[in-house]
Amino acid sequence: MLTLDRQRLLPLWRRVRNLILLVFVTVGILQDNRPGVRLLTGVALAGLGGTLLALRILPPRRHLMAACVTMAAGLWLIAVAGPGIAPIYLILALASCAAVLDLVTTGVLAGIGLLALTVALAARDVPVATIAIWCGITGVVTLLVVLRRQRTAAAEQERLLADEQALAAMLAERARLAREIHDVLAHSLSALSVQLETAAALLERDRTAEAAVLVDRAGTLARDGLTETRRAVSALRGDPLPVPELVGELTRGYGRDLDAPATFTVDGEPRELDAETGLALFRAAQEALSNVRKHAPGSAVETRLAFEPDAVVLRVRNHGPAGPPVTGLSSGYGLIGLRERAELAGGTAQAGPDRDGWLVDVRMPG
Asked: Where in this chain does the record put each Signal transduction histidine kinase subgroup 3 dimerisation and phosphoacceptor domain (predicted)?
């Protein structure tokens, strides 16, 4: 809140400061010189132009015109009333241009202004040292305003970049949460659906005992879904997962639920993986087996987890459809999320037809 107030109040203070300085300069010139038409004309033009420049209410082109009028009036006052403090009008005009106009225009105007100021002061027999002081002050003030403007622009760029990075991080976290929700719900709900649809078909044939077994299994799957949810929360917190145990249980669960051949093999020496890699492998196995449940329920499945020296490879292969596909369950985002998750963790994921079935191949560094 304090930063916002400072950002809003600082430009306002600079305008007020410039107006106060303009008033002091104008009053000082009027007090030091006898009033006359030429003097009052110069003071009026310099005061009007300086006020417009201080308020910064003009578009760039008109701001440039006001700056030229103010500088010309300042030079006119030097010629009419002597050097005095009239060069301050030129300083105000050039500083205002440095704060509003582009660098090229400011540079050209500053060069013209310094040359004109030198000539005007020299014409009034002002010592060279005094001319140098006025020109030096004018140049330094203009340069300081340019530097301040560039520093402000750089700070604004950094703020925008930080905002964009924060937005990207937020969107990435949302995508991550969305994948977790999808993976947990898709797996649990697809398994539940298969069990309940089969139970309903059995009930239509008055095979209540077998239907009760499936309903009981559906309850188990629902509880497993809750466990998956807790596991997802744990993974999001960065806790490592026991990948071989989890993938093996997934495979055995598929075989048990669908009474289908399902084998799980581990090659190499298992090692602990970081949370992101472990979660990507676990979700890949979950998504692959969930797809088999949906598209080829009962198909024989081979799951292989290989711990290579610098990578871990997961392959889930099924061998042709053993039953009709279960409709109405696929969201169409499972394989997309699988690839996104693998790529975000530095790995790759491929899925496609393979011999008589379908193969999901995931390779993760680790």
From this structure: 173-239
